[in-house]
Amino acid sequence: MDKRIQLLDAIRAIAVKTPMNDVEVPESVVGFGTIEYKAQTCSACKKCILACEPAALDMEDTLNMHDYLRVTVPQEGFRSKNREVLVTLLQNLKQDHDYGDVQAISVPEGLPGYGSIVWSAEQCIACDKCIEACPEDCLTLQKTYKLPEIIGPIEAPPPRTEGKDWEPFIVCFVCWECSHAAADLAGLMHLHYPASIRTIRLPCSGALEPIHIMTAMANGADGVLVTGCLLSECHYGGDSPKAGNFMQEGFVKFWSDIFEEIGIGGRLNIDFASAAMGIKFAEIVETFTEQIRKLGPTPIQAKTEVQE
């Protein structure tokens, strides 16, 4: 959990605007998602809570009235018969009474079988264990990430002026097997690409953690470039969907969308080159550098200066 909290704090630290939208999570990206809870069929057995290692679920001693007044009882009924009786009773009473502004009712302490599951977006690691443990199919994992709820409001930094001698500072993560060799080959071929790029070698592009990207941005990088072996030719997985570069491609797409939402869109990219592709590597770097030139200097350092 310390790792998850560290990651969320890092996102908040580099955010320059308040996110307004949830972010779609690619199928290949694990560890992120939204747990949806269908209260009407829940029997408050707490099996999901016991199965949740990061303690992202808890039980509230309340029943949300509107959840039960809107539900349609299936023809075969609910598997939880006590909940079926409650739903039917509430809906019959609704015909004769106006609930007004009543949003929820308290469950008497010690009364088994009733309550509402509360989910923490910050703590959840989308491991599916709660879903597997639930005998009533009350929980489902949606491939969305509730960024506005998790990040909260952000104070925008003042605009940063671009000096006439400014050049983009780019951190490029290169895989040991291919793209690092391609970078070396580009140098041996005396190919020109911007000198402001700094390369960091990794055993595999798939070994790159989000916190590494956040750290680079927080320390003043104008952009972050990730390069790896050609797709389907990863040295750690070949053409498997779980190969390092395939997995990292999905993650970079996910974090690119997050960057867009927090105000630093376009400053993260991933591309691929084999060890023999010195020319392509130089083109990848030149294209990304030109993209960053158009965006201008990172606004993150300006925000840090204001806070200090």
Q: Give the CA-based shape.
A: elongated
- The chain-level mean pLDDT equals 85
The strands making up the biggest β-sheet line up spatially as 10-9-11-12
Low-confidence stretches: none
Query: Strand fraction band?
Result: 15-25%
Instruction: Please report the first level of CATH classification, the CATH class of the largest domain.
Output: Alpha Beta
SS-based class: alpha/beta
- Give the tally of β-strands: 12
Secondary-structure element string: HEEHEEHHEEHEEHEHEHEHEHH
**CATH fold category name of the largest domain:** Rossmann fold
Roughly what percent helix?
25-40%
So what's the oligomer here? single chain
**Over all CA atoms, what is the radius of gyration?**
25 Å
